[in-house]
Amino acid sequence: FEQLVPSETPKTRMTRNSPSQTVTRDITSD
């Protein structure tokens, strides 16, 4: 759900710029 929330935190903001695969991977790691 982190992808859906607005880019509040720097992490979410950064992941948003990254490809979908990286985003999912980052969220899973987190």
Structure description:
This protein is an all-alpha fold. It has one domain (1-30). 60% of the residues lie in helices and 0% in strands. It contains two helices and no strands. It has helices spanning 10-17, 20-29. The longest helix has 10 residues, at 20-29. Residues 15-30 have a biased composition (Polar residues). Residues 1-30 are annotated as: Disordered.
Labels describing this entry:
2 helices; 30 residues; mainly alpha
Q: Can you tell me the number of structural domains?
A: 1
Order of helices and strands: HH
Amount of beta strand: under 5%
Number of separate strands: 0
- Can you give the helix content as a percent range? 55-70%
Give start-end ranges of low-pLDDT stretches: none
Rounded to an integer, what's the Rg over CA atoms? 8 Å
* Span between termini: 12 Å
Report the major sheet.
none
Average pLDDT value?
Answer: 55
Task: Output the number of helix runs.
Answer: 2
Region (Disordered): 1-30
Biased composition (Polar residues): 15-30
What does this entry show, briefly?
By secondary structure, the chain is mainly alpha-helical. The chain has two helices and no strands. The mean pLDDT is 55.
Topology:
Layout: H1 10-17, H2 20-29
